[in-house]
Structures are given as structure tokens and as C-alpha cells.
Amino acid sequence: MKKSGKILYDADPGRAFYEGRDAFLKAALEAVSQQFSLDGASFYEYEEKTGLLRLKHRCAAGVSFEHEENLRPVPGSAAARAIETLKAAVSKSPGGSFLYSPFRFDYCDPAGGRSVIPCFGLVRLERSPRKRRFSPAETARADAYLRSFLRDYYKAEFFSLYRKYDKNVAAITELTEVFATALRVRDSFRHILSGIQTYFGFDRVRLYLIDEKNRKLKGELSADIRGQIKSIAYEEIPLEPGAHRFADIVLGRSSGAFMERYKDCVLYMPMAVQGVTIGLLIVDNLLSQQRIEPEELAMLKSFGGQIALAVDNSRLFDKVEELSLYDELTKLPLRRYFNQRFQEEFYRAERFKQPLALIWADIDFFKEVNDTYGHQIGDKVLKETGRLILSNLRKIDFPCRYGGDEIIILLPQATGAEATRLAQRLSQELAELRIPVPFSKTRELRVTMSIGISTFPADASTQDALLEKADDALYWVKSHGRGKISLYSDVAEEKKKAEQAGGSNNAVK
After folding, report:
1. Does pLDDT of 168 surpass 60?
2. Are residues 340 and 485 in the same domain?
3. Do 484 and 370 belong together in one domain?
4. Which residues contact 43 (CB under 8 A, 6 or more apart)?
5. What residues form DSSP beta bridges with 296?
């Protein structure tokens, strides 16, 4: 049965993600406060490792503001129940009535490659003792309202990164050419280190960056006087007092006798952006034992903030680029990223005369799923489909959310038979999947997929033709019952037989 209901939030607050994370949270808390006559609303992120709720934003008495406060939910409390069950919980105390609405979703963490990290927390809605308690119906409405609003949180994160990136660009333009150039190249860190080493003539320059998620100081690159740049990614230092002198320096502690002994030929320079330390730059003349002159130290330190901005900006650029290339829901690359990769793989297949297969898949009756059970269930279907696809592919395969519920998978060096085997495996695992639907009679939803396959060079000799043939095969499946797999070569053969049969019948007549 299709759910009915009014729009959960107005267009203006709903599009607040364009202004960034803080503006988005402000709009969300103000909107829910007005909608449900609240005296206060607070946004908390939950840190599972420490068990702390970290207050990030609060709206009270019509005023919204950023706030920093750590709370530990009492076992058995409404907040603890909401976190454990991921269901809204209410409580009543002399201080008033409270509703805790939990949220949990994943978003890409490009700083860590293609990994994803969870965003977990809750929103607390507050009413003074003079006002009515939250009824079960109102609790359900408020929880649905917030969940609908927070679906756009990852977009707010994207625009926050983009604004910070844009702000850093303005500062970066005043740097020397090497730092400005380093902004948009894939090996930006190499340019930065090479520029420092070339300009100052140090024996060695090393760059370490802080990994906040894992609380480590991780090596990036080392440039030496010969112009060689090497990865030092194998160096990982726990960011704890006493773990290593590098960690102590970053943490602002005494670095011991070593630093005092070599203070004339080694410089340890923590890099900070807006008061937040992001890494450590180390330059030395340990090989030549030449003293680093005071004027060199002064000049390098004067570049310190600019170097930190250049490093931070290249990381931010990667994050923005990653967020714009991957679908937040399925974790699959988006169409524009696929088009770039498709061109590269097709060129490679042509040049080295290798096979290339293309799978075009469509989730059956997906529109009906959305119309009948709502977009939340539809999102679960897409999320699980993306998870199954990513868990079954080879490293060289490239999937893509092409649009809506359409998914394309590029299979380099794969024949039609190999693509069919993969399609069968995906189809079988998807058919075994059960999506919980508590409010339906069946209590669960089963999903099937229609799949068309085309191959190069057997079916097509161009990129457009390869896509067209896969689409033709998919259309054949959808027009003959759905839930099946067809190779274009088989579809072409069936069409040929049908045409011949039609011609024979006409001849008899």
C-alpha cells in the first residue's frame, strides 16, 4: 500500500545543504523546533569507541549556535535505548519532555581511499515541563521528519568541503608557482616536497600527515638531494605521548635529547591550518652535516602556513572530487566517472585486442517498490544491491550507478561467458536477499534484476554500439518476463529466427 503524507520540510531549509554543514544543521534544528513547538533541539554525533555523545549544534529560544560538549548516555536511559535500537525514544523528567531521534548512515571517506565511514548520532528534541509530552504519533512524525531531512547531510558535508577548498584556493593563489601548481595534480605532495628541496637545497625533506580516524602519524613522501622522491607510507606512528619523538613534537611535548643534539641541521615543523595540526614537515642536512642558516629557517617558517594550506587543499580537493564521483547510497561510481573509465578501457581493449564485456542491469519493478513501500525501502534495495555488486567484482571490474535503478558493470578482459557467470551469481544472491518491510503483510521484500550483456569485439566495434547492444539485450529481457539474463548475441539470434519464421508464414499464405 502506498504511503501518503505531506512534504516533510519546505524547499528553503531542505536546500540548506548548499550552504554547508553548519548552515544545514541550523536549518534542520530550526525547522523541527518550529514544526513541533519545541523549546530546544540538539544535534549529537556518537563516538562508538569512547561511548560519548558529542554535541555539535544546538537551537534554543530561537537562537542557533555551534556548541562543544561531551556526554555519556546513562545505561538504560532514553538516549542509550535510541542509540542501541536505532529507534526513537522518549523520556519525561522534572526538566521537561525529551525525544531522542537516532540516525546512522554511511558516506565516502576519500582520505582513506574508497572506504566508507559511518555517521552515527541522534537529535534530541526538548519541551519544557509546562508543555505537553511527545505522544507516540507525534514521536513517529518527528522521527520521520528528521530522518527525511538528514538524508541530505552528506550533501552538506560535500558543500562544506567545497567551501573550505574554495577558501583555501584564494589563499593558495598568493603562493609561489610550485604550491599553486601542486593544487590540482594527482601527485601534489611530490611537487610540494620537490619544490622545497629544490628551493632550499636540503639533504632531505619528509612529510607526515595525521590520520585522525586511526590516531596515527602516517608517512607520505621523502625527497632527497638527488631529486629522488620515495614513499614512506610504511611509517606509521601512534599519536600518543612517548610513542615516538615525532608524535611528541606534534602533540607539543618535549622531543628529547636527539632534537637538541641535531638542532642546527634538522628542523621539525608541525603544519597547522586554522589552529588544527594536520601533519609534520621535517627538513634536514644530516648527511652533509651543514648547518641550516637562521635566514633559511626564517624563510621556511614563513612558508609554513602556505605549505600547510597547499597540503590541506590537495587533500580537500581529493575529498571533493571523490564525493562528486561516487554515489553516496550505493557506494558505486557515478555516470560521469564511468564515461571516463569506459573510454580508457575500450581504448585498451582495442589496442591490445582483448575482450571487453558490458553488463547493463535494471532492478525489476523498482518504481513500484518506491510507490508502494516508500523511498526509504527503495533506498535499502539500492544500498544492498550496491553492496552485493561490490563484493562480487574483480579488482579490474568497474561498476556504475548509471541512473535511477540502472547499473552498468564494465568487465575488462572478460568474454560473454564470463560475464554471464558473474551476472548469474549476482542475480542469484540478489534473489536470496530479503529486505525487511515491517508494515507489509509479507513482512519482507524480494528483489530480482533483469540483465543484458554485450561484448567487444563480437557484438560491437564502438563504445556507443557496445552500450546500445547491452541496452537491447536488457530490453529483450524486460519485454519477455524480467528477472533473466540475456547475451546480445542470443537476442540477435532469437530475432533472426522470429523474422525467418514470419517470412515463412507469409510465403505459405
Report:
1. no
2. yes
3. yes
4. 25, 28, 29, 55, 56, 57, 58, 121, 123
5. none
Helix (H), strand (E) at residue 209: strand 204-211
- Could you tell me how far CA 156 lies from the centroid of its own chain? 12
- CA neighbours closer than 13 Å in the CB half-sphere of residue 347: 6
User: Half-sphere exposure of residue 262, counting CA atoms within 13 Å on the CB side?
Assistant: 17
Cell of 466: 557496445
Beta-strand ranges (E) seen in 306-433 are 356-363, 398-403, 406-412
Q: Which of 18-22, 284-288, 398-402, 459-463 has the least mean pLDDT?
A: 18-22
Q: What integer is the mean pLDDT of 181-185?
A: 46
Listed residue (283, 317, 287, 289) closest to 303, CA to CA: 283
Give the pLDDT score at 164: 53
86, three cell numbers: 536505532
pTM score: 0.45
Residues 141, 118: contact at Cβ < 8 Å? no
Domain identity same for 227 and 345: no
**C-alpha span between 266 and 468 (Å, rounded):** 62
Q: Helical H runs in 105-244?
A: 136-150, 153-172, 177-181, 188-200
Rounded-to-integer distance, Cα 414 and Cα 418, Å: 6
> Does some domain include residue 165?
no
Instruction: Based on the fold, state whether residues 224 and 357 are members of the same structural domain.
Output: no
What average pLDDT does range 379-408 have in this prediction? 91
Alpha carbons within 13 angstroms on the beta-carbon side of residue 302 total 8
DSSP conformation letters of 39-97: SEEEEEEEETTTTEEEEEEEEETTEEEEEEEEE-PPTTSHHHHHHHHSS-EEEEETTEE
Could you report the per-residue pLDDT of 89-99, keeping only the tens digit for each?
A: 999 998 899 99
d(CA 422, CA 428): 10
The letter for the amino acid at 246 is F
- Whether 219 contacts 236, CB under 8 Å: yes
- End position of a domain, from candidates 281, 306, 325: 325
How many residues would you count in the chain?
Answer: 509
> In the chain, how many domains are there?
3
Predicted pLDDT at 299: 72
Angle at 18 between CA 16 and CA 20, to 5 degrees: 85
DSSP letter string over 288-342? T-PPPPHHHHHHHHHHHHHHHHHHHHHHHHHHHHHHHHB-TTT-PBBHHHHHHHH
Q: Which three cell numbers stand for residue 312?
A: 590541506
Q: pLDDT tens across 312-368, in order?
A: 776 766 666 666 678 888 889 888 888 888 999 999 999 999 999 999 999 999 999
- 163 — pLDDT class (breaks 50, 70, 90): low
Q: Are 73 and 82 contacting, i.e. CB atoms less than 8 angstroms apart?
A: no
Strand ranges for 431-474 from DSSP E: 434-436, 444-446, 449-456
